[in-house]
Amino acid sequence: MRHCDSELHVMGRSEYVDDVTPPAGMQHAAVFGSPVAHGNIKTLDTAAALLIEGVSAVFTFSDIPGEGYFGAIVQDEPLFADEKVFFQGQAIALVVANSYENARKGVAACSVEIEELPVITCPREAFAKGETHQELRVFEKGNVDPIWETCDTLVEGSIDLAGQEHLYLETNRARAVPCEDGQIKVYSSTQSPSATQKTIARILGLPMNKVEVDVKRLGGGFGGKEDQATHWACMASLAAYLLHKPTQLVLSRGDDMRMTGKRHPYKQDYKLGLDTDGRILAYEVSHYQNSGAFMDLSNPVLERTCLHSTNAYDIPNVRIRAVPCRTNLPSNTAFRGFGGPQGMFPLEVAIEKASQKIGVPPYRIQELNLARRGYVFPYGQELEDDRLHRTWEEAKDTFDLEQRQEHIETFNSENKIFKKGLALMPVCFGISFTKTFLNQGSSLVHIYTDGTISVATGGIEMGQGVSSNMIAICCKVLGVSHRRIRCNSTNTSRIANISPSAASATSDLNGNATIIACQEILAGMKRVASEEMKCEADEITIVDERVYLRGDSSVLDWDTLVLKSYFARVPLMAHGFYAPPNIRFDPVAGWGRPFHYYTYGTCLIEVTVDCIRGTYTINSSKVVHDLGRGIIPSVDLGQVEGGLAQGIGWVTLEELAFSDDGKLLSNALSSYKCPDGDFLPDDIQVKFLENADNPGGPLGSKAVGEPPFMYGIAAYFAIRRAIEAFTPISESETRCPMTPEQTLLKLYPQAADSFAAFSTDK
Ligand code: MTE
Ligand code: HPA
Ligand code: MOS
């Protein structure tokens, strides 16, 4: 089997929200956003918009019939600015017209007068001024304070870690259709249909059973549509509800980039202490999260940052401090890894610095400190197997680490202008929502009388292949061909209280629920077959669409058994529900067993830096990844390669730039560069760990969506190794991403100094 949408995608025939034929009289909406990042609204003039031909209405905060404020964690965010604005692009008004073009003309005609207030874009500054969304949290294991003086090597420093634009191909959009009796049906590009349903109900003052949300697929989400697809669905619904006309809202790329939040940038301080052998004795890190204007998901993102701050390493004494800081930027949000990458990054910086002091390659320190079975993480969970080590050892052996290192040293001694570097990145990523209650999945399986099957779950297809996985699971459990099975849209009227498709757990949660539903139907069908064949139900199996008795083929085939079951009045549909056992987490104590299990892997990246130009080539990325027993090999491989590519982009090319007054400068694909096929390494090798069934995952599989993202971090350190072969890196603050510009400045520190003087002189 392959990805069930692949043919539709390649032919351009897969349908997204706005591809479906519009209902008669559909209106189009566009958003008027704040031109400044912080201030009091003095006057808002929308009269001119209403004069534009085709414009039928303009809505603002005061038009909201229900609650004007909402939010996943705290309800601190207004749908439209309420007297004040907190970031550039914050929605102030919604213009509705008979066409997309006219709605945008209406937006251009709106004007607002704002009394500007001071703008904060830096989380350290926000923290100093007491602008936080939540108190500073501390996670501790052992006690770092008395350890420092016993260490042979101490390194400390600060980090400026950048955010990342989601850059899903399909920008945010929704279509809302008013229905009889004040009901509303909403097609939304959201990862969280139930949260969207709940928020629309809240905004409109409706009960949830009057709001139906339907999602066929997303053109990518990457976390960006876990919490921030809601706004647009609410706005389309508001217009549809108040005007009694279907309304569609599609964000332009520019609006999507400036109006929605991104991966959280962080400022960080670290301190690492080691003994003479390079064993880590103590680690302290402070995370100042740039959360943006509203809370959104900043709290759980920061929590995962804390849980993954020691990544794959056994460290006896740890102190992690973390605070979400309020700034005048769009609220930053979920993004593949959900704070995990930001947690892992500073420890790798610290290990790199320590390795230089000690005079060994960083991978020796990484290896020496890799966590083993029995290790207890600072939040109380124990490492229950040695697979992390297996991925490390296999990566080292399979990809000839020592030989590659020697090759690079020889190359560097023989070449003046081109320098090579390599780096390894081990990853240990916890699978489960850290908000334990979210770990639940549901599935509805229907078998029709012609023998075809439809499966609908809470899982959202965003390209990651969850629909295909659901089909593959039905196919395996029911013993039929995947050609008989279709995966239905995700719909709040079929499945209630759907958890976001996130945390890499979608196939796990909904896949296990699908197995339960299939097994329930199958049990009834086997009873029918056993009566027919005068045997026990457990002597029956169905393989390749044929019924087997004690392993021998019988005359009964799938189609016949389905019909017989129907006439015997045995249910051919079932609802399965699954919640993983044995997980719990107390967020106040920061203690528990938050994760069902971990996904592991090790990545080796090699690069070549052109030391004249500062440009670089990523030569190879080689990964050993623990996938459990994969469901569909090509889909899993796509997830590993895609995550890796996105991770490489984060630490190399992708540079978000905001002006001091909070304007997004990298606001188009001309000024925001993400990796393309040419940039990515020609040599990508992914080896899956063998004999690695995962008892917690459906059919022995493991969650794969997010963990490969963090492999990309190796690219950052590989580039730095190459730079170091040319000239020592000296810096007061470690900055990520390592763009070619940054690389050039690191290669020529004297030039960097005069460049800095030049930029301050203007
Ligand atoms: N892959 C594609 N093609 N598109 C996406 O939007 N999102 C990622 C990952 N892989 C994404 C993707 C993120 S952030 C997550 S959490 C997981 O997929 C969600 O899906 P899963 O739970 O089925 O792995
Ligand atoms: N991961 C992803 N999304 C989430 C989580 C998480 O741990 N918690 C809430 N939303
Ligand atoms: Mo993924 S960041 O959990 O949507």
Keywords:
single chain; 762 residues; alpha+beta; Aldehyde Oxidoreductase, domain 4; 3 domains; eight-stranded mixed sheet; six-stranded mixed sheet; 26% strand; globular; binds ligand MTE; binds hypoxanthine; binds dioxothiomolybdenum(VI) ion
Describe it for me?
The structure is a single chain. The chain has 762 residues and is α+β, with helices and mostly antiparallel strands. The chain has three domains: 22-118 and 166-259, Aldehyde oxidase/xanthine dehydrogenase, molybdopterin binding domain (Aldehyde Oxidoreductase, domain 4, 2-Layer Sandwich), CATH 3.30.365; 266-434 and 588-755, 2-Layer Sandwich (Aldehyde Oxidoreductase, domain 4); 440-579, Aldehyde Oxidoreductase, domain 4 (2-Layer Sandwich), CATH 3.30.365.10. Helices cover 30% and strands 26% of the residues. It is built from 19 helices and 32 strands. The chain has an eight-stranded mixed β-sheet with strand order 3-7-1-14-11-12-13-22, with helices on both faces. Helix 16 (633-651) links the parallel strand 30 (616-625) and strand 31 (683-688). Helix 14 packs across helix 15 (558-567). The model has no long low-confidence stretch (mean pLDDT 97).
